[in-house]
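Hey, I was hoping to borrow your eyes for a little while. I've dropped the whole record in just underneath, so have a look:

——
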Amino acid sequence: MSRERTATTDGAGPKPPEQPPSPLKTLLRPIRGRIRTAVVLQGAASALGLVPLICLVELARTLLAEEAVDTARVWLLVGVAVGASVAALAAGTASTLVGHLADNDLQLSVRRALAHRMSRVPLGWFTGRGSGRVKKGVHDDIEDVHSLVAHTLPDLASVLTVPLVALVYLFAVDWRLALVSVLLVAAGILLFSRAMAGSMAKMAQYAEAMNRINSSAVEFVDGIQVVKHFGGHRRAHERFTRAADDFADFFVNWSRSTTPVTVGSFLLLSAPTVTVVTVVAGVGLSLAGWTEPASVVAFALLAPALCAPMNVIGSRVQQTQAAGAAAGRVTALLDTPTLHQGEEPPPPESRVVFDGVSFSYTDHTGDRTAAERGRALAEVDLVLEPGTVTALVGPSGAGKSTLAALLARFHDADAGSITVGGADVREIADLYRTVGFVLQDVRLLRETVADNIALGRPGATREEIAAAARAAQIADRIEALPRGYDSVVGEDADLSGGEAQRVSIARALLADTPVLVLDEATAAVDPVSEAAVQDALSELARGRTVLVVAHRLTTVTGADRIAVMDSGRVVESGTHDELLSRGGRYAELWRAQGHRRDESGADQ
């Protein structure tokens, strides 16, 4: 018999794999000890907060005693009450201080880790997600975790400690009255659980009904001009009102089925109800001689504490769940794959070679089948000679912007290589000192215009910044601003799309990279601004190796080389005249854009 068979027979089979810790536990691990300290301190503060009430009960018991009043005991109880109050205040303050300092350290370390991670992820990662997800992780989700660390967990300690201590004392005073209080709270919990039965399914229906209202409202508002023009506004309006009526009917029916039970549970769990019921029961037992009058005082003061968890436990659980979800999102950001950081110095020359480059936009699961279906580039070979302008043209979705983005290393190629001066772009230590780019979607920081221009070269002098602005055809506009180059973008520097584009060109001029990527740099500007932007681009391209992504073919007729892309491949290349004479894909695109040649060969 084999060893494996023996192990199975003996019941010592392979151990199941250990479950990884939750994201929340992972995130809180560095401050776990301080969180426990804060929780213990808050629990102690809550317990100590009940001591003055207990002392008050014992004081009443002492003063109501038939024998002579024990003065020493009275002052002892007063001293204990005062001391417990001070101790409760000190413990609560210490808990708040420890919790907030721990939370502050956590926020600082996590935000630094996120900033460090985000600075090393591919730039294309941001394009696919936008700034909202990063902002939510760096700010909103951290705030949810802050609430858990600094408030929710200590509050839970208080919520659990207060009724536990009160219940122990009340059972010690009179078990019969304590049992009345417990049964009252238990009845309230039972009613509440009945009210919440099936709430998950109801919430799903609620969300679905709200989605129908939102969808019909958006449809009605967005399409109001069209539907009114064609006389269909009544039909669109009816869809919205029907969705609203359906939601109202659903909500009313749900409320009718749960409101009586919910109200009953809240009444049973309310502090006044518990107090009145136990005091009335206590008076009856006292009159029957089964308990002391002082016991009634104990329940009048402490019985309401038994309801404390019911009033806040739901919100605290929700906050804990929200923090867990937030921690998952933060951890996902911290686990985002980063680009390999090269160590080679900038190359001495600017010849760019795309050698068998393939690339796919994989989904987040890394499904290779989906990657094959969504392949953007397939074995692209292209050479950009130093000091020349190479234009990428082709229909939408041909892979032009993707190829340009790989040179700027917004992503890394799946196969093949991209080299600059013989060095792989993945191994160049500071690639953006070698490769610059001007994109269609211009991003300016909320800083001075001078700082925005000097972003790629922070040590530039004001004279160098102004020279770059003049070369980019934007100096006159900047000097006309209220504070000139010291005007802040978004405050006293409101720039149009074309002006912002020229500021970004000035930034690229000042950075003075030998290789330049221009991706539809004039696509978003008006015809008046386009001429100024084209002049600035001509100045920027002088003496550099330039890769231009263009949609309008007329803007690249003077390029040294035009590469025509289709379905992720380079299907032909040459000069403008060569490609037209071949009558291939480029000629089709040229005619599709309404251009033709006359008999003399001149473009029209």
User: Anything to note?
Assistant: Residues 1-11, 363-373 have pLDDT under 50 and may be disordered.
